C-alpha cells in the first residue's frame, strides 16, 4: 500500500503544478490585456484632446504609447515559448518607463494645465467665439476684436476659430502672463468645456495606468523568474507520470556487464 500511495502522490504533483501555472498564466494574460486596452484608450483620448486645440500642450498620450508597446511585448512573452524570458524582460523595461511617464503626465496635465485653466467665465457665458469663415484660407487670419474685461476694456488680436475670454485677459501686459485666456482651433466655446472634461478623464486614465502598470510589472516579474515552463505537452506529462517507483529499482538488469574482479588491479596507463 505504501508504494502505491507514493506513486499516486508523485503522479499528482505534475498535474497540480500544471494547473497552478496555467492559472497564473491566465491571470497574467487578462491583466496584460487589460493594460493594453487601457493604454490604447489613453492614446486615443490623448490624441483627440491634443488635436482639438493648439493652445494646450497635452502630453497624456505619450505614456500610453510606451505602455501599449510594453503590454504587447508582455502578451508575446506569455503566448510564445521561444525567447519568453527576453520578451518579458523587455516588457518589464518598457512598462517601467511607461509608469514613470504616467506620473509625469499626471503632473503636467493634471497640475500645470488643469489647475491653470479657469472655466468660470466659460460657464457663465462670458466668453466669445470669433471666426472669419469655414474655409482653410482663414485659418491664419488675425483680427482685432474689442475686449471688455472686469476692470478695463481694450482690443486684442485673435485668430480665426478662437474662443477667447476677456475676463481672463490682462489688457495692461497684453495677456502675456495669462496662459489660457484663448483657445485656438476650436469650433465653439462649448467645445472648450468638452476638452476640459476630456482632460480630466485623461488624467484619471493616467492614474489608472500608473497603478495597473505597477501590478502588471510585478506579475510579469514573478512569471519571468519561474524555472518551469508555462506550457505542458503530452510527452512531458508522460515523462512526469512514468517516474520509476521503488519496485522498478529492484528489477535486475537483463544484460549485466562481464564479471572481471582483477580488472581494477591492472596498472593504469595514461594515454601517449
Automatic annotation (TrEMBL):
Q: Which domain of life is it from?
A: Eukaryota
Does the keyword Transmembrane helix belong to this entry? yes
Region Disordered, as annotated, extends over: 243-272
TM regions (residue ranges): 28-48, 60-80, 87-115, 193-220
Pfam families attached to this UniProt entry: FAM70
Fetch the InterPro entries from UniProt. Answer: TMEM255
Compartments (UniProt record):
Membrane
Query: Which keywords does this chain's UniProt record carry?
Result: Membrane, Transmembrane, Transmembrane helix
Single GO cellular component term: membrane
The similarity comment for this entry is: Belongs to the TMEM255 family.
Q: What is this protein called?
A: Uncharacterized protein
Organism annotation: Denticeps clupeoides
Amino acid at each position: 500500500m505504501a508504494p502505491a500511495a507514493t506513486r499516486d502522490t508523485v503522479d499528482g504533483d505534475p498535474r497540480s503544478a500544471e494547473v497552478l501555472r496555467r492559472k497564473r498564466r491566465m491571470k497574467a494574460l487578462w491583466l496584460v490585456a487589460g493594460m493594453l486596452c487601457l493604454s490604447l484608450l489613453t492614446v486615443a483620448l490623448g490624441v483627440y484632446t491634443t488635436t482639438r486645440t493648439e493652445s494646450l500642450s497635452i502630453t497624456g498620450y505619450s505614456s500610453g504609447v510606451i505602455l501599449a508597446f510594453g503590454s504587447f511585448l508582455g502578451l508575446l512573452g506569455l503566448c510564445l515559448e521561444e525567447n519568453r524570458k527576453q520578451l518579458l524582460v523587455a516588457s518589464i523595461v518598457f512598462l517601467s518607463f511607461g509608469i514613470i511617464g504616467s506620473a509625469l503626465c499626471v503632473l503636467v496635465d493634471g497640475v500645470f494645465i488643469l489647475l491653470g485653466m479657469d472655466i468660470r467665465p466659460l460657464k457663465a457665458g462670458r466668453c466669445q467665439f470669433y471666426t472669419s469663415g469655414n474655409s482653410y484660407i482663414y485659418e491664419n487670419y488675425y483680427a482685432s476684436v474689442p475686449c471688455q474685461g472686469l476692470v478695463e476694456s481694450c482690443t486684442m488680436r485673435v485668430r480665426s476659430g478662437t474662443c477667447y475670454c476677456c475676463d481672463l485677459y490682462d489688457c495692461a501686459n497684453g495677456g502675456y502672463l495669462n496662459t489660457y485666456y484663448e483657445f485656438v482651433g476650436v469650433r465653439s466655446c462649448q467645445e472648450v468645456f468638452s476638452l476640459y472634461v476630456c482632460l480630466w478623464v485623461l488624467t484619471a486614465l493616467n492614474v489608472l495606468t500608473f497603478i495597473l502598470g505597477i501590478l502588471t510589472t510585478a506579475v510579469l516579474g514573478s512569471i519571468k523568474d519561474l524555472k518551469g515552463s508555462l506550457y505542458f505537452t503530452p510527452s512531458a506529462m508522460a515523462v512526469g507520470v512514468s517516474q520509476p517507483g521503488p519496485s522498478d529499482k529492484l528489477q535486475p538488469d537483463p544484460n549485466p556487464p562481464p564479471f572481471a574482479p582483477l580488472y581494477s588491479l591492472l596498472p593504469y596507463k595514461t594515454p601517449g
